[in-house]
Design goal:
Radius of gyration: 26 Å
Strand order of the largest sheet: 2-6-7-1-5-4-3
Number of helices: 12
Shape: globular
Structural class: alpha+beta
Distance between the termini: 27 Å
Helix content: 40-55%
Length: 404
C-alpha cells in the first residue's frame, strides 16, 4: 500500500529564494506548454499536441535557456508536463460525459504551488540518516534543506513533492509499505448518518457534535476580507506591502479552518475504525447537494424572476461545505483499509423516512429535523438515529449480497 507523509521544511533565506524560483520556472513551463497546445489547435488545423511531443522538446528548451530551465530536475519538468496532460485528459472526459468541461487555464504564480519529483534519487534525495538528528532533503538547484520530521517514514520512498502554503514550505513523500496487520476484531457493527445539526449520528445512539469551524472563524474572516476589499482590484506591479499582508491574513485564516476540519475528520474516523469492524454510511453526492437552485423566470413579466429560495439554499450550502463530509468519508475509507475494517456506502434515499419497526416509508414520518414519528405504528425516535439504523441494515444487506 502507498502512504503519504507531510513534513515542514526549514529552508534558509537563500534556499527560500531558490524554491520560489523553482516554482516560477515550472509555472512558466506549464503555461508555455498550455499556450503551445492552444495555438496548435486554433491555428494549425485543430492539431492536438500530446505529452510525448512536448517532453521531447524539453532538452532543446533546457539547452536554449540553461539559467531558467537547465538548473532544475529534468524529471520534475516532465512531471509538470504530465500534470498538464492529465488536465486535458480530464477536460475531454468531461466533454464526453456531458459535464461542464472547464478548459485548463493558465496558472498564476500564486496558483502554482507544487513541484513533483516522480522518483526518489532523480533530482531529489530523501536523506533520513538514523544517527543524524537533523533530517534533510536534497533538491537539485536548491541544496540540502532541513526537515522537521515529527514521525518516522516507514517503507521505501517513491515520490517527493515540494509544496508552498503561504510563507511555509512542506515536503510530501509517498512511501510503499507492506499491508499492516489488521486491528483486533471487536464484533461491533455501526451505521452512521452525517448531518448539519450533529456532524455524525451512529445507529447505537452516539452523536458527534458539529464543530462548525468556518462559522466560528466568520467574524475574523469578515474583518480580514473587508480590509482586503479596501484595496480593490490592484495590478500586480502596483501592489503594496499592506496589500500583500491583507491577502496573507485572509489566506492564513482559511488555512487554519482547513487544518481544524482535517484534524476533526481524522480523529472522528480513527475512533470509528478502532471501535467497529463494519461501518456503513450514505453514498452522498455532495457536489449535487451544494448546487445553486435554478432561476425561475416570471412568465407574466419578461426579464424578471420569481423567488427560488437561493438565499436559504446558499446558507445550507455553506453549512454542508463547513461540515466537510467528503473529506471525512475519504479519510474514513483510507483508515479502514489500513486497519482491515469494512466500509460500505449505501443508497441514502428515504433512510430518514423509513420506520425501522414496521418499514413504512412516508415524508410525514419526519415532522421536524430531529423528531421521527411513524404515522403507521406510532414509533418515536430521533430522526438521525433512525437514519443511521436504516443505513446499517442496508449496508448489511449489500454486504451479504456481495458475499453471495
Amino acid at each position: 500500500m502507498i502512504r503519504a507523509y507531510k513534513f515542514l521544511m526549514r529552508p534558509t533565506v537563500g534556499q527560500q529564494a531558490a524554491l520560489g524560483e523553482m516554482l516560477r520556472d515550472h509555472c512558466g513551463l506549464y503555461n508555455g506548454a498550455l499556450q503551445e497546445r492552444r495555438d496548435a489547435y486554433q491555428h494549425v488545423s485543430k492539431t492536438s499536441i500530446k505529452y510525448g511531443q512536448q517532453s521531447a522538446q524539453l532538452r532543446e528548451i533546457r539547452a536554449f535557456d540553461p539559467e531558467r530551465h537547465g538548473r532544475w530536475s529534468f524529471s520534475s519538468q516532465q512531471a509538470t508536463l504530465r500534470r498538464l496532460d492529465k488536465a486535458f485528459a480530464a477536460f475531454f472526459r468531461r466533454i464526453k460525459s456531458g459535464d461542464t468541461p472547464g478548459c485548463p487555464r493558465f496558472r498564476g504564480v500564486n496558483w502554482f504551488d507544487t513541484v513533483e519529483f516522480p522518483k526518489d534519487g532523480d533530482g531529489c534525495r530523501w536523506d533520513a540518516t538514523p544517527h543524524d538528528p537533523v533530517t534533510r532533503v536534497r533538491l537539485q538547484g536548491v541544496g540540502h534543506v532541513k526537515i522537521n520530521q515529527h514521525r518516522p517514514v516507514v517503507g521505501k520512498v517513491k515520490t517527493v513533492s515540494v509544496k508552498r502554503e503561504g510563507r511555509k514550505w512542506f515536503v510530501v513523500l509517498t512511501a510503499e509499505q507492506a499491508q499492516p496487520d489488521p486491528l483486533p476484531a471487536t464484533g461491533s457493527m455501526v451505521g452512521i448518518d452525517v448531518g448539519i445539526a450533529s456532524f455524525l449520528t451512529t445507529s447505537n445512539g452516539g452523536h458527534v457534535e458539529n464543530p462548525r469551524h468556518a462559522r466560528k472563524a466568520a467574524a475574523k474572516l469578515e474583518v480580514a476580507q473587508q480590509a482586503l476589499s479596501r484595496f480593490g482590484r490592484v495590478r500586480r506591479d502596483k501592489r503594496t506591502g499592506n496589500h500583500r499582508r491583507a491577502v496573507e491574513r485572509v489566506a492564513t485564516l482559511h488555512r487554519k479552518v482547513r487544518r481544524q476540519r482535517l484534524d476533526h475528520a481524522h480523529k472522528t474516523a480513527l475512533g470509528l475504525v478502532r471501535e467497529h469492524d463494519f461501518i456503513a454510511h450514505e453514498d452522498l453526492k455532495i457536489r449535487n447537494m451544494v448546487k445553486a437552485p435554478a432561476p425561475k423566470p416570471d412568465p407574466e413579466t419578461p426579464g424578471t424572476f420569481l423567488p427560488n429560495g437561493a438565499a436559504a439554499k446558499s446558507g445550507l450550502n455553506r453549512s454542508i461545505a463547513d461540515a466537510g463530509w467528503g473529506v471525512f468519508l475519504t479519510i474514513l475509507h483510507a483508515k479502514a483499509e489500513s486497519a482491515g475494517r469494512e466500509v460500505i456506502a449505501v443508497d441514502p434515499r428515504n433512510t430518514s423516512r423509513t420506520c425501522p419497526e414496521c418499514g413504512h416509508t412516508a415524508k410525514e414520518n419526519r415532522p421536524t429535523q430531529e423528531r421521527f414519528h411513524c404515522i403507521a405504528c406510532d414509533h418515536h425516535a430521533h430522526a438521525d438515529e433512525v437514519g443511521a439504523t436504516n443505513v446499517l441494515r442496508a449496508g448489511l444487506v449489500r454486504r451479504n449480497a456481495n458475499q453471495a
